[in-house]
Design brief:
Layout (H helix, E strand, L loop, with lengths): L1 E8 L8 E3 L2 E3 L2 E7 L5 H9 L5 E7 L2 E2 L5 H7 E4 L11 H7 L13 H14 L14 H14 L4 E5 L7 H14 L4 E5 L6 H4 L2 E6 L2 E5 L5 H8 L5
Parallel strand pairs: 2-11, 4-9, 4-10, 7-8, 8-9
Antiparallel strand pairs: 1-2, 1-3, 1-5, 5-6, 10-11
Helix pairs in contact: 3-5, 4-5
Length: 235
C-alpha cells in the first residue's frame, strides 16, 4: 500500500528534518505517536499529498505519489484533520455525502450506491441523532464523529486521522478506536494520538517519532516498553 524510501521532512526553520527510512505499510490500524512538535501532522500531510516539502519518495500501490491524479488520490486516501472544517448550514447528513464526491459524475447525482454506503456508516457509528442537525451546532465530539463517518463513507484503501479522539469522551474514544481496528482488516489506517492507553488493546502497529526519526514497531509485546521510553517523564 505505502512504501517510503528515505524521505526527509522539513519541520520548519532551525528544526532538524524528520527522517523516515524504508518504511512499508500494507494494512491494519497503526498509531502514530510522538511528542508535541515532533512532526506527526507533517508526516500525515506528506502521506496525503498536502505537504510536498520533503526529500525522497513516497509510493502508493507502487506508484510515485506525485504522479497520481487528484481524483485518484481522493479515491485512495481519506483524511480527518484534528480541527473540524466549516460547512455553513449543511447538516450532518450533507457532510457525510461529501465523502461520495470522488465517485460522482459531472452533475454530482447521488446514486443508489452512495445512499447505501452512507446508510451503512450511519448505522456503524450510530449517527442517527446527528445527521439532521446543522453541523455548526454539534459539539466538538459530535463533529469529529461526523468527520470520521465522512472518511469511512469515502471508502478508500487508506485513512489518515490527525488526533481523531481528541474531543471525544472516554467511552466514544474507545468506541472509535475499536471500530477503526475492525475496519482496518481491509484498509490501512494511520492515526496520530496521545491516548496511549488504547494502543496496546486495539492497534496492530505503532509509528514512533523520536530523536528526529520515525520508526515502526509491529511486535505488540514491545508496545509498552517503547511507549514508556518515549514518554518516560509522563507515565
Amino acid at each position: 500500500m505505502i512504501s517510503i524510501q528515505n524521505i526527509a521532512l522539513f519541520l520548519g526553520n532551525e528544526k532538524p528534518k524528520l527522517k523516515v527510512n524504508n518504511l512499508e505499510l500494507k494494512s491494519g490500524l497503526w498509531a502514530l505517536v510522538g511528542r508535541n512538535g515532533a512532526g506527526k501532522s507533517t508526516f500525515l500531510n506528506a502521506l496525503s499529498g498536502v505537504n510536498t516539502n520533503f526529500e525522497g519518495e513516497i509510493l502508493i500501490n507502487d506508484k510515485p505519489q506525485k504522479s497520481i491524479s487528484t481524483q485518484q488520490m481522493a479515491k485512495t486516501i481519506a483524511v480527518v484533520f484534528s480541527k473540524t472544517e466549516l460547512f455553513g448550514n449543511h447538516t450532518g447528513l450533507d457532510v457525510l455525502y461529501l465523502g461520495r464526491i470522488p465517485y460522482q459524475g459531472v452533475f454530482s447525482k447521488i446514486t443508489k450506491a452512495d445512499k447505501e454506503k452512507v446508510t451503512e456508516i450511519i448505522e456503524l457509528l450510530s449517527l442517527k441523532l446527528l445527521i439532521n442537525k446543522p453541523f455548526s451546532v454539534l459539539s466538538d465530539g459530535e463533529k469529529q464523529l461526523i468527520m470520521i463517518g465522512r472518511a469511512l463513507v469515502q471508502d478508500t484503501e487508506l485513512i489518515l486521522l490527525d488526533e481523531p479522539t481528541a474531543f471525544l469522551d472516554v467511552v466514544n474514544r474507545k468506541k472509535i478506536v475499536k471500530l477503526l481496528a475492525k475496519v482496518s482488516h481491509e484498509k490501512l489506517i494511520i492515526f496520530s494520538t496521545h491516548n496511549i492507553d488504547l494502543i496496546e488493546e486495539f492497534c496492530g502497529g505503532m509509528l514512533l517519532i523520536q530523536n528526529d526519526k520515525l520508526t515502526s514497531e509491529s511486535n505488540t509485546n514491545r508496545f509498552k516498553t517503547q511507549l514508556e521510553t518515549l514518554f518516560e517523564d509522563e507515565i
